[in-house]
Amino acid sequence: MMRKFIRYYRPHLPLFTLDFGCALITALMDLVFPFVVRLMIDEVIPSRNLNLIFMISGGLLVFFIIRSLLQYIVDYWGHVLGIRMEYHMRKDLFQHLQKLSFNYFDNTRTGHVMSRLVNDLNEISELAHHGPEDLFIALVTLTGSFLIMLSIHWQLTLITFMLIPVVMTFTILKNKRMQEAFRNMRRKLADINAQVEDSISGVRVVKSFTNEAYEEEKFKEGNDGFRLSKEKALKVMAEFFAGVNFFTNAINLLVITFGGLFIYQGTMTMGEMVGFLLYVSMFLQPMRKLTILVENYQKGMAGFHRFVETLELEPDIKDDPDAMEMTEAAGEIEFHDVTFSYNNREHVLNHISFRVSPGETVALVGPSGGGKTTLCHLIPRFYEVETGAITIDQRDIRSYTQASLRRNIGIVQQDVFLFSGTVRENIAYANLNASEDDIIMAARLANAHEFITGLEKGYDTYIGERGVMLSGGQKQRLSIARMFLKNPPILILDEATSALDNETEKLIQQSLAALSKQRTTLVIAHRLATIKNADRIMVLTDEGIVEEGTHETLMKQQGIYARLYEAQFSQIPTVVA
Length: 577
Ligand code: ADP
Ligand code: MG
Known about the structure:
- A hairpin with a 5-residue loop joins strand 1 (333-341) and strand 2 (347-356).
- The protein starts with a helix and ends in an 8-residue tail after the last helix.
- The strands form 3 sheets. A 6-stranded mixed sheet has the order 6-9-10-3-11-12, sandwiched between helices. A 4-stranded antiparallel sheet has the order 2-1-4-5, covered by helices on one side. The chain has a two-stranded antiparallel ribbon with strand order 7-8.
- It has helices at 2-7, 13-30, 32-47, 50-99, 102-106, 110-152, 154-161, 164-201, 203-208, 212-265, 270-311, 372-378, 402-407, 423-428, 436-445, 449-454, 472-486, 502-516, 528-533, 551-557, 560-569, and strands spanning 333-341, 347-356, 361-365, 387-392, 395-396, 409-413, 421-422, 462-463, 490-494, 520-524, 536-541, 544-549.
- Helix content is 65%, strand content 11%.
- It is elongated, with a radius of gyration of 36 Å.
- The longest helix has 54 residues, at 212-265.
- By secondary structure, it is an alpha/beta fold.
- The structure holds adenosine-5'-diphosphate and magnesium ion.
- Residues 372-373 line the site of magnesium ion (MG).
């Protein structure tokens, strides 16, 4: 793991060397000041040589300016190093996430992916640049100040250092409890956030059941939990700082008490005692830094672990090494005894076989949960068949590259996803190089041009978050416009019209009918109009494709289709496309 971590430093080696070198020099420079103070008190001030005093002061001024410049380099370029490493890691992770298959996203919560991309990487980057730097500064300062103290007065050093183990134990223990308390607090805060999100996005449900009081009670619980956990954390933190403060002063007290004695004895000078005091406080700082570093190391490495874990996940579905490009498909689709289940659970599709000829429109009907959407997702290879095979133009879809396969297939779903952006950008998503004329033509064919030009800024209207709200039918027409622009030889319509009112549906039926002309179309239908337009109807149930034929022949059979038709379609007014 460490080696993988270090690999990310490699492109930034010059920056790292600069940062690290400057940090080391500042640490060494800091050791000089108390030494000069001691010299001033013991030698320079008693000599009453004003020139020398000014010279030393002037020298120190230059020294401090250089020190500050180095500090600037450490702070600025050190953090730049961190953010550049973070940038590369984030890029790698995002790139990899794009490669992963549906299966990964089915089983991963968005919140977790987000926290990987943001929090984890932030913690890793903190560790990446503070880690080595702080560790070495601490070691230099600790050994440096300790050795100098020994050389000033070893007896006083030993007396002072009797307290150090106590301080260390206290710091480590309290720090640990503090971290635990803060972790607990963050967890409670996340709970509150989740609760607020739930109540707000579900506000219609809350209000329609008049459950406001219940929601308030639930919220109070979370709010109380957070308050108590924060009070606890604040208590531990106050204890920690009070303790650290006491021990620091106790050590100083030891120094001036015993230092005073040694001065009377004549084994120590005033300057030595003041210098000693400064070195002692210099010694205590990195100790605190080290405890924080241990914590950051744990957090950063845990984050890095998760990062590497995600990065090393292989996509479930990969292109065959000698996969070929699918050029313009004729559009023949055939299922050969296909069986499929999600994550090796119960089979959703069992021994499915059927064939759709180029240009044919086939309607797929069946009970909800029967596997219609699943079947459609197998064609662009969003999921892999378990046994059997799917062929397009008589070749197994696994022998094509996924990208070229998917270029030949267009899917219109019931839930339309629009990105935040303009209307134009959302249509052009199907073909990023489309010209303005192409976009408008596609919108016209989708019966969307009218309503788009009626919007305040036409094609430049911003939609999605903080943009205008579109109705379900308008969104659907944009997604159909996308399909006209994409112009794929194979078209899959998955309940594209089931959430629409009659008037809108009529418009959409028209454009869908135009869209499916001269394309192989598989349509999952809820409405009679769509079904009647199909060349053929297939009925999919748990048992597989149980009935097949035209509306009339299937009605005559008096089988499942006839029953489904009675239950589902007959009450809904027929829309003539
Ligand atoms: P239909 O579109 O005919 O209503 P689906 O293909 O959506 O049916 O679902 C078929 C079955 O597969 C259902 O039992 C459903 O719960 C299950 N299912 C659908 N999608 C997933 C998924 N991503 N992971 C696991 N199970 C799923
Ligand atoms: Mg479905």
